[in-house]
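To close the chapter, one final illustration. This time we ask the reader to focus less on the individual chains and more on the assembly as a whole: which components sit near each other, and how the overall shape emerges from the parts.
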Amino acid sequence: DAGVIQSPRHEVTEMGQEVTLRCKPISGHDYLFWYRQTMMRGLELLIYFNNNVPIDDSGMPEDRFSAKMPNASFSTLKIQPSEPRDSAVYFCASSRTGVLNQPQHFGDGTRLSIL
Amino acid sequence: QKEVEQNSGPLSVPEGAIASLNCTYSDRGSQSFFWYRQYSGKSPELIMFIYSNGDKEDGRFTAQLNKASQYVSLLIRDSQPSDSATYLCAVKVYGGATNKLIFGTGTLLAVQP
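The assembled structure is written out below.
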């Protein structure tokens, strides 16, 4: 089975530009999670969806960040306008509903650099 | 107090030794616990999960859970240089509409040949 697919793998852009990160979850998984990882703060949950509906966006840093999941196989995380402090690795993960032991499977991440 | 705490390390062990990685958590309602391994520049990958008190073994890995002490650990027997990575402890908060993992900041393990 294909894993979680993220694009692009790397993104370098200038401050103020709009950045869009994309994610395709594993087929059949009904939870999708967006994380940000930095050396200082570790792995932080930004937002997650269940059946395409946002459940908890309390980790989204500010209004410059937005996320959508228009269907079960696609999600985007958008930053507008971008700032240098947004530089990080952004991971998407997915999992199935259910019992206690359902793990999250991570994509390869997008390494974002804002100049 | 952080919700999930790990010693950042680095934890250095010689090849063939047992590496012991520890994690404490603050929410007594936590129900299941995961260990992820992350190589430098890569994504986290699941090693093990545990949700019952006691030990759970999988090959060279053993997860230990003590809910009364709010403590979970990972033992790696016969450590190999290829085990050198950051190990992330994650605690699952599950119930109602909530279904998310809270991650610790990870422990860097270095296995010396």
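The interface with chain B takes residues 31, 33, 42-43, 45, 48, 50, 55-56, 91, 95, 97, 100-101, 103-109 of chain A (CB under 8 Å). The first strand of chain A starts at residue 5 and ends at 7. With these observations in hand, you are ready for the problems at the end of the chapter.
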